[in-house]
């Protein structure tokens, strides 16, 4: 086990004035990694990333080097590197600050990634609502082109790399890599069947690797400092550092960086501890899709394997911490409404399940729950989990199943009292406006259902 | 502002930026919003024409994404995060007050649209309000209401997060279209190169990949207007 | 089938697995759901369709696969060696999964089965019964939508019933290629819809009704009419074009309720076009002929069969007595094969004539030689086309003429990127999937086909390199095209197909229903051929007779006394309306046997003999491939109508000849005659100069028929006709500019005869200069009014507002 605690590695430059400009970035070691990468063969680059043990930072934790090694070569097709910058998992705010403050780190990482997988074209699929990040990235790309770091002759190496910034339009599901590819192709962001996997049939049917912002931005550091440097932190299975988002009822919510393996309790302490007079009652360790954990899990080291061992997931590294002042049923309801709103509609369990689950939860939270609803919730979650097309359906069940497991008495209290014990009254459902001809009646009916 | 010939030209510029023209659909729809303030029927027709799609295909996509607005409202879009952290911090109350103050989601008189947003990725500043996708947070209820008033007056202050004053909705949509990103000649050249690869990029229809079109690629697939105009020019040379 | 793909030649690799403890071997790449079907296990499904790409959306086909942590969707996962699959028959996991999915699907379903057209044939209903729970645990608010909404005049959509399997949207994208119907919105509000001002106008839209696994998409014309369990179902073959689609006719109390595509993987797979599906209302339309009639004092009055046939026989006897060549027969292309053979014999033996033609075009001289050469040869098949890497299409617009062939071409393009090459003045509806369009002057296709045979150019090289390419020549291709196309196919070791438009054309050709020909690709001027026929039929005329152009010319000149028209509306369809009118006016007795009151009957017939329609009789029909398929009688015709061959047989009897009209006898005769052992060589010259250049201001008119037009076989199909394409004139941009015309303008077209039509202009950059494309069969009057006496069309074009007085232009439009 390596060093633990708060660190400043990826976030080290965050507070350097004007580091978003290429000159300041270079003064702080920027583009050194690229320079080194240009002297290396693609296989060496992939080996380096493999040796570092870097695991994908987008949620699934798949080893980045391994992913790159799967990208099909020699097919005659163009190869694409796509950066998943569609950060939207509730509680997650690590990629946006990185892109706003240190955009060249991503640009540099993209070029290096392109070299590693034999790609001459990268796309950054940026969440549309991140207008400021888009502005910063566009400027960084302009600067990189102007300096000859992007384009037909990267740093005079004769190698080519082009980078397109593509702003999305509001759909959480596009964070799923195949839905992202469909969206990037100008379609509805609905996930694709796998196999074939993007590594052979990705964007435009060409070999493609889709990687998270943080994963890509980490790579230039590996080139500058080596793989071993990275493994000084964390554990064998979860080496390195991780940008972590701490929010909820903590004193200083914010974007922190920790060595993996840091105990969750220490992380909360780093964020100033709980707000005055509050105790941790439950928390999501890695975003809303990761099952809730409770105060008894606070001493877990923050690693992929330990969190998984406790029945949850490290996810995106988004710690949402709540006390007894927050109604767990209400939080679960809001998460469920989120998934219902963001379900793409492709598969039955997720589409209809989300629709049903949120109605039941709303009934319970507003005091109209029935005793049998609790088991019904669990059974419906069982019918969604593992049967939905993509992980969104699975994620939908996480808060419900975990909160029912840990806090069934809260649900029972709602049913027994006929109201929320904490007095939280959820609002009427708000649904997007539809064109009047299509579904005005539907809207009225659904909106009315939550009253 | 209506769709003009210039809009069409710019849409074509966006289309040429990708080895498969359809990829430009999301950017073109942003461009349409930049011109029209929402995704208008003319805008859907433009996207369909430029990309060789049916209007049903375009509207199918535009209705999938929440950032495409279906009616005009004016210059300011206020998005309030109502996910748990922001909700607990007061986001829900802000949202409800906004709707009450606007008499609904759209207040055309004041040129404002309010919407609830899913997690905006800035939970450390809960509760968060976005004005034309510029972040403000944490905001008190009063600050949030003042923000609404400021938006209605057209005097939105700079964001406490980015330090930027948000442009109008149309202006930010123009940004989001990427038309002014400024590296177009590189991207267009790269797209053309890829379209001419030994095995060119393909249009995915179901689980089948169909080789496609780019004006410079093998014109044996979809491609509508671009294909036709390219075909017309090559025809003359043959 | 879809998953296995085209498959490698020869032995396919087999994969062995067990499904519910039964060992099964299937080709590699087969989906589990298909593999299960081979042992009779039908895994429940909604979104899966064997001809659509897998999507895995409904999650109903869940099975358990040993070693897989999660249940597997059998419609998306191919088999693997040694795989151990457990379906709902043996797996509780699978059963539970299916119960769960059914429950989710019914959450928002209105459960309005008693008033739903799908009731009784609804997979959702069946599966809810078989795998679902008796009562619902859902007590909350269902989605509500307006019901139903029209997505086209012939299709209604009830979104509350929809399970969002996306079969319809995938069909329209993947199969028919006209994605006007799409999924809109997302999540729980996802719904099938069209874009408001863009109706779902597809020639194939009816298929989505048939493949909808619930009652969401229903047919306007079938709505509330019948239940599947109280209709009589009869297999049939479509008679609307030469595609040969097999159909299922469903009738109730002797009336057709609906027609469905019947699966025939060799021909129409599981599809049909809307014309075939909805085009049956003419059987009971007001224009339908229900009893014989005679013209008395210029007015058609009802008559008995004996009287009508007597008048006809007397006229024929008198004409024959007046000298040879005074009776001629034109048959159109509606006849069943057996009837065509009988008519062929009737003309040659009873009338002792060879003046007969099944075509409506005024053809060039050498076409008969090429047609007889063709008739004795095997044709390219649908499967040949489907497998061909390069497909040349000349003088044919399959979507408008033979729609199911269009789907095959699309499938070849989509499944293995077949390179489709269009040869002709205009790329037509193939444009979006065509690899190359080789433009030619109107009628000059043959020269290009010959050049391709020589390996010229990019297309020629592609053909030379391709393995078994296909060459398809339509009936609009100019002189010499059949011979040139066949020669091209031979030169590149490919297959050749002649693709006429009408259903009975190939059958008529094989029956020898054209002057100079005899059944089986024989020629009347060939002594050996004639001897073969005479052995069966008795003495035959020795010299070739007159084709349609000559018949009409002679008739107009007063040299013909009796015209016997069988299923052809010459006034509307003959290549020259002017010539047809002159002929019909001059001929003493016009005998017409047909289904409906055509323009010819109304204006010219002296004797009207009503005939049965396809669905009212049994018979055989040969499609463009030369594939003969039998059909059965589905309903009774009007009481007083007779089959065509009965009518001819009775007429022959009155003329003193006994012809056996029994179907089985005719089939046996056809069998006995067979095809000529050694096909005649093609005769067409391949160095045809081609198009008659238009002189001066004139533009050469190319008539492209539209699928949905004014023909009597669509009478009463109002919902269908509402989806017809607007008749327009296509004009090259330069030609349009020179005449001050732009897209959407109304133009006056004036023919050599002075007749004029008004049509909206559509600018077509892919149309060669100097030509215009005219909409065939879909205007009143027909565009053939613009033709000169030789059937050639040269028109002048002017903006409608500049119309010169004199020839008052006739505004035209679709009949609806």
Strand content of chain A: 5-15%
**Share of helix of chain B, binned:** 40-55%
- Spans where pLDDT lies below 50 across 5 or more residues of chain B: 219-238
Strand order of the largest sheet of chain B: 2-3-1-4-5
What gross morphology of chain A would you assign? globular
Largest sheet of chain A, in brief, is: 5 strands, mixed
Q: What helical percentage do the residues of chain A reach?
A: 40-55%
DSSP strand tally of chain A: 9
Gyration radius of chain B, rounded: 21 Å
Can you write the helix and strand succession of chain A as a string? HHHHEHHEHEHEHHEEHEEHEHHHHHH
- Structure classification of chain B: alpha+beta
Walkthrough of the structure:
The complex is a heterotrimer of chains A (451), B (238) and C (816). Chain A is α/β, with parallel strands linked by helices. Chain A has 18 helices and nine strands. Chain A has helices spanning 22-27, 32-37, 42-52, 64-70, 95-101, 103-117, 131-146, 177-184, 213-225, 227-231, 264-270, 304-309, 328-342, 348-365, 371-384, 391-406, 408-417, 436-449; strands at residues 80-85, 121-126, 162-167, 208-212, 241-248, 254-259, 280-284, 293-294, 318-323. Chain A is globular and about 70 Å long. Chain B is an alpha+beta fold and 238 residues long. Chain B has helices at 5-16, 25-36, 41-51, 55-62, 84-88, 91-102, 141-153, 169-177, 184-195, 224-237; strands spanning 76-81, 106-107, 112-117, 129-131, 134-136, 202-205, 208-211. A five-stranded mixed sheet of chain B has the order 2-3-1-4-5, with helices on one face. Chain B has a two-stranded antiparallel sheet with strand order 6-7. In chain B, helix 2 runs antiparallel to helix 8 and helix 6 (91-102) packs parallel to helix 7 (141-153). Residues 219-238 of chain B have low confidence and may be disordered. Chain C has 25 helices and 36 strands. The radius of gyration of chain C is 28 Å and the shape is globular. In chain C, strand 28 and strand 29 form a beta hairpin. Helices cover 27% and strands 20% of the residues of chain C. Chains in contact: A-B, A-C, B-C. Chain A binds chain C through residues 171, 173, 188, 193, 340-349, 351-356, 359-360, 363, 376, 380, 382-383, 386-389, 431-432, 434, 437-439, 441-442, 444-446, 448-449, and chain C through 54-60, 62, 69-71, 76, 96-97, 100-101, 103-105, 107-108, 137-138, 140-146, 159, 163-164, 183-191, 193, 196.
């Amino acid at each position: 086990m390596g060093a633990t605690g708060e660190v400043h590695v990826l976030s080290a430059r965050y507070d350097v004035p004007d580091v978003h400009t290429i000159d300041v970035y270079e003064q702080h070691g920027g583009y050194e990694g690229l320079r080194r990468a240009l002297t290396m063969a693609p296989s060496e680059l992939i080996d380096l990333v493999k040796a570092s043990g870097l695991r994908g930072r987008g949620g699934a934790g798949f080893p980045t080097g391994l992913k790159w090694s799967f990208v099909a070569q020699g097919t005659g097709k163009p190869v694409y590197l796509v950066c998943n910058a569609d950060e939207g998992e509730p509680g997650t705010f690590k990629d946006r600050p990185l892109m706003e403050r240190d955009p060249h780190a991503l640009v540099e990482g993209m070029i290096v990634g392109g070299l590693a997988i034999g790609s001459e074209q990268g796309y950054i699929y940026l969440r549309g609502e991140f207008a400021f990040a888009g502005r910063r990235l566009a400027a960084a790309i302009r600067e990189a082109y102007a300096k000859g770091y992007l384009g037909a002759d990267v740093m005079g190496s004769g190698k080519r790399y082009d980078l397109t910034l593509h702003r999305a339009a509001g759909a959480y599901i596009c964070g799923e890599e195949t839905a992202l590819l469909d969206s990037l192709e100008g379609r509805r962001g609905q996930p694709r069947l796998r196999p074939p996997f993007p590594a052979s049939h990705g964007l435009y049917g060409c070999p493609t690797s889709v990687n998270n912002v943080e994963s890509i931005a980490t790579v230039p550091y590996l080139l500058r400092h080596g793989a071993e440097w990275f493994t000084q932190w964390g554990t064998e299975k979860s080496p390195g550092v991780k940008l972590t988002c701490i929010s909820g009822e903590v004193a200083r919510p914010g974007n922190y960086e920790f060595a993996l393996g840091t105990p969750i309790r220490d992380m909360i302490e780093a964020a100033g501890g709980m707000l005055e007079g509050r105790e941790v009652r439950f928390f999501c360790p890695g975003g809303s899709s990761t099952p809730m954990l409770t105060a008894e899990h606070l001493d877990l080291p923050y690693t992929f394997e330990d969190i998984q061992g406790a029945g949850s997931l490290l996810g995106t590294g988004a710690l949402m911490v709540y006390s007894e002042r927050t109604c767990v049923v209400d939080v679960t309801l809001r998460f469920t409404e989120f998934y219902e709103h963001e379900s793409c509609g492709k598969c039955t369990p997720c589409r209809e399940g989300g629709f049903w689950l949120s109605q039941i939860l709303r009934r319970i939270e507003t005091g109209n729950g029935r005793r049998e609803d609790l088991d019904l919730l669990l059974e419906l979650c069982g019918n969604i989990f593992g049967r939905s097309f993509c992980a969104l359906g699975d994620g939908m069940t996480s808060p419900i199943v975990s909160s029912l497991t840990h806090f069934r008495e809260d649900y029972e209290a709602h049913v027994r009292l006929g109201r929320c014990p904490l007095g939280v009254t959820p609002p009427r459902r708000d649904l997007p406006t539809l064109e009047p001809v299509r579904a005005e009646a539907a809207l009225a009916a659904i909106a009315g259902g939550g009253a | 502002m209506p769709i003009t010939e210039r809009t069409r030209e710019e849409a074509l510029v966006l289309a040429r930026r990708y080895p498969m023209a359809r990829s430009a659909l999301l950017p073109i729809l942003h461009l349409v919003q930049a011109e029209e303030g929402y995704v208008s029927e003319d805008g859907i027709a433009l996207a369909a024409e430029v990309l060789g799609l049916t209007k049903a295909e375009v509207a199918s996509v535009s209705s999938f994404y929440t950032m495409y607005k279906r009616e005009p409202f004016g210059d300011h879009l206020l998005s309030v995060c109502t996910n748990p952290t922001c909700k607990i911090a007061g986001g829900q109350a802000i949202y409800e007050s906004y709707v009450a103050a606007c008499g609904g989601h759209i207040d055309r008189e004041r040129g404002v649209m309010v919407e609830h947003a899913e997690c905006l990725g800035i939970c450390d500043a809960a509760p968060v309000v976005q004005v034309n996708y510029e972040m403000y947070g944490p905001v008190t209820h009063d600050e949030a209401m003042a923000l609404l008033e400021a938006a209605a007056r057209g005097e939105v202050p700079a964001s406490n997060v980015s330090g930027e004053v948000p442009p109008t909705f149309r202006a930010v949509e123009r940004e989001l279209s990427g038309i002014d990103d400024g590296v177009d000649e590189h991207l267009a050249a790269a797209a053309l190169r890829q379209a001419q690869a030994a095995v060119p990029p393909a249009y995915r229809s179901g689980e089948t990949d169909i080789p496609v079109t780019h004006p410079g690629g093998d014109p044996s697939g979809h491609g509508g207007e671009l294909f036709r105009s390219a075909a017309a020019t090559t025809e003359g040379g043959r | 089938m879809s998953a296995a793909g085209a498959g490698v030649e020869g032995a396919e690799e087999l994969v062995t697995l067990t499904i519910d403890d039964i060992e099964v071997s299937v080709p590699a790449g087969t989906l589990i759901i298909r593999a299960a079907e081979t042992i009779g296990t039908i895994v429940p499904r909604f979104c899966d369709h064997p001809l659509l790409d897998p999507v895995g959306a409904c999650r109903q086909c869940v099975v358990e696969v040993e070693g897989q942590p999660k249940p597997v969707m059998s419609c998306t996962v191919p088999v693997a060696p040694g795989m151990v699959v457990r379906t709902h028959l043996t797996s509780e996991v699978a059963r539970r999964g299916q119960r769960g999915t059914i429950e989710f699907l019914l959450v928002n379903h209105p459960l309005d089965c008693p008033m739903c057209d799908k009731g009784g044939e609804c997979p959702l209903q069946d599966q809810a019964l078989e795998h679902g729970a008796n009562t619902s645990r859902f007590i909350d608010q269902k989605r509500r939508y307006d019901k139903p909404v029209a997505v086209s005049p012939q299709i209604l959509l009830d979104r509350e019933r929809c399970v969002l399997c996306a079969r319809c949207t995938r069909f329209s994208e993947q199969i028919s290629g006209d994605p006007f119907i799409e999924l809109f919105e997302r999540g729980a509000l996802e719904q099938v819809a069209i874009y408001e001002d863009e109706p779902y106008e597809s020639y194939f839209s009816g298929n989505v009704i048939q493949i909808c696994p619930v009652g969401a998409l229903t047919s306007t014309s079938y709505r509330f009419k019948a239940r599947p369990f109280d209709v009589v179902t009869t297999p049939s073959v479509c008679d609307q074009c030469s595609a040969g689609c097999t159909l299922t006719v469903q009738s109730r109390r002797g009336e057709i309720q609906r027609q469905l595509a019947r699966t025939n993987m060799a021909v129409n797979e599981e599809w049909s076009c809307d014309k075939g599906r909805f085009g049956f209302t003419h059987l009971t339309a007001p224009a339908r002929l229900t009893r014989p009639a005679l013209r008395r004092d210029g007015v058609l009055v009802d008559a008995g069969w004996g009287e009508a046939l007597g008048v006809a026989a007397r006229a024929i006897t008198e004409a024959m007595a007046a000298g040879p060549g005074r009776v001629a027969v034109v048959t159109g292309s509606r006849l069943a094969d057996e009837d065509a053979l009988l008519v062929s014999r009737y003309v040659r033996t009873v009338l002792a004539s060879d003046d007969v033609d099944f075509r409506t075009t005024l053809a060039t001289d050498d076409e008969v030689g090429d047609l007889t050469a063709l008739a004795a040869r095997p044709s390219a098949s649908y499967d040949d086309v489907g497998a061909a890497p390069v497909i040349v299409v000349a003088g044919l617009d399959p979507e408008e003429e033979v729609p199911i062939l269009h789907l095959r071409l699309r499938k070849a393009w989509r499944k293995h990127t077949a390179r489709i090459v269009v040869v002709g003045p205009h790329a037509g509806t193939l444009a979006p999937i065509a690899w190359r369009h080789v433009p030619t002057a109107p009628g000059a296709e043959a020269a290009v086909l010959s050049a391709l045979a020589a390996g010229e150019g990019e297309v020629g090289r592609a053909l030379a390199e391709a393995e078994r390419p296909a060459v398809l020549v339509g009936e609009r291709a100019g002189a010499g095209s059949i011979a040139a196309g066949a020669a091209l196919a031979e030169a590149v070791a490919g297959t050749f197909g002649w693709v006429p438009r009408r259903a009975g054309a190939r059958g008529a050709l094989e029956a020898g229903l054209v002057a100079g020909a005899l059944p089986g690709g024989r020629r009347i001027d060939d002594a050996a051929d004639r001897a073969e026929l005479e052995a069966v039929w008795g003495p035959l005329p020795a010299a070739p007779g007159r084709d349609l152009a000559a018949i009409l010319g002679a008739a107009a000149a007063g040299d013909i006394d009796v015209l016997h028209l069988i299923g052809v509306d010459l006034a509307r369809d003959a290549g020259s309306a002017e010539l047809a009118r002159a002929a019909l006016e001059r001929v003493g007795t016009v005998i017409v046997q047909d289904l409906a009151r055509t323009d010819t009957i109304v204006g010219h017939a002296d004797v009207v003999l009503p005939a049965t329609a396809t669905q009212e009789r049994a018979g055989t029909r040969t499609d463009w491939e030369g594939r003969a398929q039998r059909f059965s009688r589905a309903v009774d015709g009007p009481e007083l109508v007779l089959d065509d061959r009965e009518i001819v047989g009775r007429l022959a009897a009155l003329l003193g000849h006994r012809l056996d009209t029994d179907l089985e006898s005719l089939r046996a005769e056809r069998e006995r005659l067979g095809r000529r052992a050694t096909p005649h060589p093609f005769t067409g010259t391949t160095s045809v100069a081609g198009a008659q250049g238009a002189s001066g201001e004139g533009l050469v008119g190319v008539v492209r028929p539209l699928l949905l037009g004014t023909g009597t076989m669509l009478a009463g199909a109002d919902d269908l006709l509402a989806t017809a394409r607007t008749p327009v004139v296509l004009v090259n941009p330069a030609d349009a500019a020179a005449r001050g015309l732009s897209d959407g303008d109304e133009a006056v077209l004036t023919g050599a005869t002075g007749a004029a039509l008004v049509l909206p202009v559509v600018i077509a950059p892919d149309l060669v200069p100097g030509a215009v494309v005219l909409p065939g069969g879909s205007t009143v009057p027909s565009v053939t009014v613009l033709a000169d006496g030789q059937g050639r069309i040269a028109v002048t074009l002017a903006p409608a507002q500049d119309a010169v007085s004199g020839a008052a232009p006739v505004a035209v439009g679709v009949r609806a």
